[in-house]
Amino acid sequence: RLGEISIITCGSNLSKNKAVNGEYRVFGGGKSSYTHNNYNNEGYNTIISRVGSNEMEIVNEKFYLTDNGFAIKSNKNTNLSQYLSYVLKYLFVKIISLGNGSTQKVISKTNLSKFNIPIPKSPEKNQYWVDKISAPFNEKNDKQKLLENLEQLHYRVEALQKKYPHWLLLRKYS
Questions:
Q1: pTM given for the model
Q2: Pairwise CA distance, residues 81 & 97, whole Å
Q3: In the predicted model, what is the mean pLDDT of residues 130-141?
Q4: Could you tell me how far CA 9 lies from the centroid of its own chain?
């Protein structure tokens, strides 16, 4: 069970208008959309929104977690935290189904704690599965970063074309 092998924490209330802009990303009911000058969690964590948009993020940093999310990390070691993150990502549809409610599904800490997770018996097997499961996620993240870099390059070229239209035209034919 997830509650037996991990530490599951719920954050504290912090609305966007009460946050003081700072260096720490704020997570809760979805992706991080603002920052705060203080943090209430750190390290390798899987963040799951417990209400609202049903998002999941894997982070390894200091961050602020609102009461709209859960942070999950191994109560043993970082390798197991990585394994948990990838398994939870893989089983995310099942985790979302733990939610109750008619208009907005809310995932309770009790239900999340009871969620069964397959755990390898040895550290070697754990590392094997971390490497195997993380490969597609890492590949996706690498491709996403490449795409973001290409978009930035495209915007820079467009800006240069506007600023120096004749120079780029001459370079094309020389």
A1: 0.67
A2: 22
A3: 74
A4: 15
